[in-house]
Amino acid sequence: MANLIGFADIPSMRSESGGGRLGETIGNNVTPRILGVFFVAVSLTILAVAPMQSAGSADGRQKFALLVGVSDYDPVCSYGDLRYCHKDAQDMFALLVDGYGWDPSNIMILVNESATAENILSGISWLKEECSNPRSTALFYFSGHGSFFCDKAAISDRDEPVDECIMPHDGNPQTSENIIFDDTLGDLLDDLKPARVILVLDSCYSGGFIKETGSESRMVLASCGEREMCWEGAETGKVQIENGVFTRCILDALGGAGDADGDGRVSIEEAGGYAMIHVGDFTPDVQPEMFDGVEGDTYI
After folding, report:
1. Quick count: other Cβ atoms within 10 Å of Cβ 124?
2. Which of 99, 112, 149, 168 has a 20 to 30 A CA-CA distance from 39?
3. Does a structural domain hold residue 300?
4. Span between the terminal Cα atoms of the chain, in Å
């Protein structure tokens, strides 16, 4: 990736207040994760009262997850810190364990300083080792900064001129070191075949990952389009969000609100559809995207 040059460092967009977060608070206490990824959490009270049925357990699938959330960044990442990304990953862990009965030993969670590029790549290798048969389901979730860069080495009519990326704790946008690009992630996920893979990215520009990661036996949920920003923290009426907007909608959906057909369980397709409708309740100009390469419905 030495031939990649960033489109914009955008230090001028950093807030002068709020702990160095990138972006400014606008509107109803909504803060842009200008270069951020995040996953939303449903209330733990809801999870405890109304756990959803896990179709995965019923059909004998083995399920494993790598959950990553980075709020606190190394100073080498000039984009600044975020507020809720670490909590997003923790809330996702709670949803899987308390709401869906996942075995905690089947979940690897990396937050803040532990979410280095090396550890994330090691986590994906762990998923590959565990998900070695067609009856496995692998979930990869990332919440943190994301960006896009011009690919100087791109070949016309073959390569994308721009590569999207996710930013680990130690990611360096100036040198492109310790950054995970969409094509790299796509190649790594290819190694997970024949397992079923669910990829959830709550980040600015995350829709751009679909081109490189969407394939057969894979679900991709992205918080916004490839040239859109996404947001964390919002208030509508008496509802205060302390997560990313997209993530909050996804976790509310998986907590039961997304059960469109009333069968007592929520598919990933239903959760994605719910988010595509309700993200606009908080951030009207943001449109999540979804890729479905799985035959039939997909469940966690």
Report:
1. 19
2. 149
3. no
4. 34
Q: Report, as an integer, the average pLDDT of 19-46.
A: 36
Sheet strands side by side (includes 196-201): 107-111, 62-69, 136-143, 196-201, 218-222, 289-292
Q: Which residue type, as a one-letter code, is found at position 52?
A: M
User: Does the pLDDT of residue 278 top 50, yes or no?
Assistant: yes
Q: Which residues pair with 230 in a beta bridge?
A: 33
Range of the domain at 222: 4-292
CATH of the domain at 177: 3.40.50.1460
Number of domains in the chain: 1
SS3 track for the chain: CCCEEECCCCHHHECCCCCCCEECCECCCEEEECCEECCCCCCHHHHHHCCCCCHHHHCCCEEEEEEEECCCCCCCCCCCCCCCHHHHHHHHHHHHHHHHCCCHHHEEEEEHHHCCHHHHHHHHHHHHHHCCCCCEEEEEEEECEEEEEEECCCCCCCCCCEEEEECCCCCECCCCECCEEHHHHHHHHHCCCCCEEEEEECECCHHHHHHHHCCCCEEEEECCCCCCCEEEEEEECCEEEEEEHHHHHHHHHHHHHCCCCCCCCCCHHHHHHHHHHHHHHHCCCCCCEEEECCCCCCCC
pLDDT band at 40 (very low <50, low <70, confident <90, very high): very low
Cα 129 vs. chain centroid, distance in angstroms? 22
pLDDT of residue 99: 96
Asked if residue 299 is part of any domain, the answer here is: no
What is d(CA 294, CA 211) in angstroms, rounded to the nearest whole number? Answer: 16
